[in-house]
Amino acid sequence: MSASTTRMTAPNGANTSVFWDHFWRTAGIQFAGLFIITAFIYGHQPQVGASADALAAFYSGERTRILIAAALSGLNLLNLLWFAAALRTTLADAGQDGWGAAAAAASTAFGALLLLQITVGAALAYSIAGSGNGILISGLNDFAWALGVLISFPRAMLIMSGVFGLWRAGLISKALFTIGVVGVVLGVLGGTTWLSGGLWAPDGAYSRFVSPILLLLWVVVVSRVLLTRSPATRAAW
What we know:
This protein is mainly alpha-helical. Helices cover about 75% and strands about 0% of the residues. It has helices at about 1-10, 15-25, 25-40, 50-60, 65-95, 95-125, 135-150, 150-170, 175-190, 205-230. The two termini are about 30 Å apart.
């Protein structure tokens, strides 16, 4: 009687692979929501070449907000990595482990650059901005913008691995695949935004809005695909 009851109730428990498989498939939705929240908390970073007063007003005046956003962004990075892990296992189950491995590698590279970008902003707010070293503060601020450009490449690879892997596995339609390919191209273009001003600058609208929105939309769409697919039976979680 007891053993039978255990077998009936175990699949709903938090100690089962089914529970964790489903839980990490929702990590993408968690990432998208928390990303938007942290963006509002962090505020608008001073542009490349901003004046010393503007830099001091942001990094010193908004110190608490920046550090809160840094902590939440670090936590949210875990959501993205778990999302990539769920994507990899789904692709492996569908016989597309090569694309799954590409997704894992891309998410690692993306996460490393994102963590470095978060660290630069947090360090400036925590103490560097209060040192009065204008050259160092300005250089690190510009460095953070440069990271925002270079991060476009692993982000594009992450999108590509999901798009091609899910399509090869027959989990998305040809129309959605075509839209995904366009997203990959737009993602790669984000790594070319090196003009000195305007839309195509490191601090321009493309880097600030278009590139991040591409990732968020892709994560939400892929999360929907993952959540509508029945998880395979495994003991890997």
